[in-house]
Amino acid sequence: MFTKIIDQDKITKVADLIDKADKAVIVTHVSPDGDAIGSSLGLYHYLIDQGLDATIIVPNEFPYFLKWLKGSKDILIYEKYPEFAEKLISETDLIFCLDFNVLSRIKNVGVAVEASKAKKVLIDHHPYPSDFSNVCISHPEISSTSELVFRLICRMGDFEMMSKDSAEAIYMGMMTDTGAFTYNSNDAQIYYIIAQLLNKGIDKDFIYSKVYHSYTADRYRMMGHMLSERMKIYEEYGAGLIWLDNEDQKRFNSQKGDTEGFANLPLNIQGVTFSVFLREDDDMIKVSLRSQGDFPCNTFASQCFNGGGHLNASGGEFFGSLVEAIDLFERTLPEYADLLISNKNNLEKK
Ligand code: 5GP
Ligand code: MN
């Protein structure tokens, strides 16, 4: 029923690599989001069921509202156990690199991955993958890496043996990378895949609730503070900026994952099609960019914030103060005036 988007040649190679391997490591990007964790766990359960000794290694902590997933407690956090993680990476047969396109996105884990003699398989949906893997399954037209993992398992002929735990993780990743199917989600095949996952016994409403109804009260108080005190709307450009400094985050006991979804908030405002969220971190400003329509936030991210990502959802890092980051954003906005205004007009005409 669904189109074969991954080359047969790559499917055969991955199946062969899994067949020959005893041990596998799955790595995913820094500050892992729902798709990073979902695709990793979806594949992890599959590999375990295939008899492999598999481990997921993430560079740093991941959000608390993803910790209910089966297998999430076994995820190894590199920052906590660097030597152990490096040993596993150097001794493994096979490394799966999920939901990132360049090794710098996995920070120090990348050094160990590059040095490892293991075969490497990249499965990702970000544009411009770099050339470090033996098999590169890169599909920017697909809205989540989790969907690619589903497609890979099916094409290897193993849909029947996919477990409910794997299906649950895959659904969670597909859901979070599309804002619960509110953007990048017009491909009819997504819903065909969801039907298949439901047949595995997942409860999609339960999964939604676990992810989106599990925040702390402090997170909502921080959001309220941000929306009233830390938001600027640039009506002429249809753009919005929000930010949080260190003090704000301390005041509201911000935890990993608490700012997830904030970058999208200005897009809820009539006429706003481009949104930027700046969050002060210990040694840099973390930047999240979102857009609607054709406005390329990845171009803006790479021009100003050493970043990249997708057309409508990108990120980056700024090394300087919050005031300097705001200033750079405001100085750059006029350069994008034509693009922003034509995008806004196109969306209004729709
Ligand atoms: P988020 O804003 O949720 O952190 O990231 C959204 C998307 O932007 C991610 O899926 C990823 O593609 C991209 N992204 C986030 N941070 C960075 C970064 O520091 N560098 C690059 N190249 N891409 C990023
Ligand atoms: Mn993703």
Automatic annotation (TrEMBL):
InterPro entries with a match to the protein in the record: DDH_dom (IPR001667), DHH_sf (IPR038763), DHHA1_dom (IPR003156), Oligoribo/pAp-PDE_c-di-AMP_PDE (IPR051319)
All copies of domain DHHA1, residue ranges: 253-319
Domain DDH: residue ranges: 24-174
GO MF terms held by the record: nucleic acid binding
One Pfam family of this chain: DHHA1
Protein name: Phosphoesterase RecJ-like protein
Organism of derivation: Dysgonomonas alginatilytica
